[in-house]
Amino acid sequence: MSVGGRRLWKIAMGAGRKRWNARRRASHLIVAAAVVAIAGAAHADDRAAAADGSVQAKLSYCKDCHGPSAQGYHGFYPIPRLAGQQPEYLENQLQAFIEHRRTNNIMFNVAHALSTGMKSALAQHFRDLNPKPAADGPRQLVAEGKRIFEDGVPDSNIAACAACHGPEATGVRQIPRLAGQLYPYLIKELTNWGKERGQNIAKPDASMVMSPVAHSLSKSQVEAVAAYVSQIR
Fold first, then answer.
1. Do the domain assignments include residue 33?
2. Is the separation of the CB atoms in 196 and 207 below 8 Å?
3. 89-105: string of b/e by CB count within 10 Å (b at 16+)?
4. Distance CA 182, CA 79 (A)
5. Is the Cβ–Cβ distance between 183 and 227 less than 8 Å?
6. Model confidence at 53, in pLDDT bands (50, 70, 90)?
7. pLDDT tens column, 155-189
8. Alpha-carbon distance 81 to 70, whole Å?
9. Could you say which of 161, 176, 195, 221 has the lowest number of CB atoms within 10 Å?
10. What is the mean pLDDT of residues 72-81?
11. Amino acid 9: pLDDT
12. Is residue 134 included in any domain, yes or no?
């Protein structure tokens, strides 16, 4: 082989080795990127599993009082149904316990330990539950309760409950769902509205809207409305 031929051969071989090394480096980079991606996905899955586990742990705690399907609990102190409740309302009420807009030492301790993300996760979970309605109010009061819920009490200047809570009593945003709620719990809340809601004067909230309505309803009217909405699915 001539001198010129050898020189060309060396140049060609050198270029080939460079191309091979470049391909090898590229291959290594692709493998490394794939490993990082897989590791990242696995880490994300671990974090999601951990987060899900923590939500499940909190839900288990909630179920001790509110029931396995968040259907509420009858007892000396009625515990409300959370199932199907509006998420924004639930989150707002948890914050109300923290800010003492609602007075309940047990719920203050519960809510105070929840992060913002955890409150949202719990509220979303409860919204998707749909157990049977409590239907625990006296049946003879249902018809009268339906009339008040749908038409209000014009003679007493009391607006229809359906105007805010909706025709099916499912609520919207910060307005709560009433459908299926426990009869004694609704009576307790409506009767003691001014003693349990809007307690922090420095932080007025949506509970002010209900204050004149709750105060205007008579005992028999409260019982009738509570009996009616308790049986709505």
1. no
2. no
3. bbbbbbbbbbeebbeee
4. 8
5. yes
6. low
7. 999 999 999 999 999 999 999 999 999 999 999 99
8. 6
9. 195
10. 93
11. 40
12. yes
Inter-axis angle of helices 219-230 and 142-151, nearest 10: 100
Return the number of other C-beta atoms located less than 10 Å from residue 122's C-beta. Answer: 22
Q: In the 3-class helix/strand/coil scheme, how is the chain assigned residue by residue?
A: CCHHHHHHHHHHHHHHHHHHHHHHHHHHHHHHHHHHHHHHHHHHHHHHHHHHHHHHHHHHHHHHHHCCCCCCECCCCCECCCCCCCHHHHHHHHHHHHCCCCCCHHHHHHHHCCCHHHHHHHHHHHHCCCCCCCCCCCHHHHHHHHHHHHHCEHHHCECCCHHHHCCCCCCECCECCCCCCCHHHHHHHHHCHHHHCCCCCCCCCCHHHHHHHHHHCCHHHHHHHHHHHHCCC
Residues 6+ apart with CB under 8 A from 166: 172, 175
Q: Is residue 75 part of a domain?
A: yes
The structural domain count of the chain equals 1
Q: Domain residues for 125?
A: 70-230
Q: Confirm if 170 and 229 have CB atoms less than 8 A apart.
A: no
**Is residue 156 in some structural domain?**
yes
Residue 220 sits in a domain whose CATH number is 1.10.760.10
The residues, ordered by sequence, that sit 6+ positions from 135 with a Cβ below 8 Å of its Cβ are 180, 230, 231
| 47 pLDDT more than 80 | no
Provide the residue type at 95 as one letter: Q
- Residue showing tokens 């692709």: 30
> Hey, what are 80's tokens?
């409300």
| pLDDT greater than 80 at residue 28 | no
Distance CA 176, CA 166 (A): 10
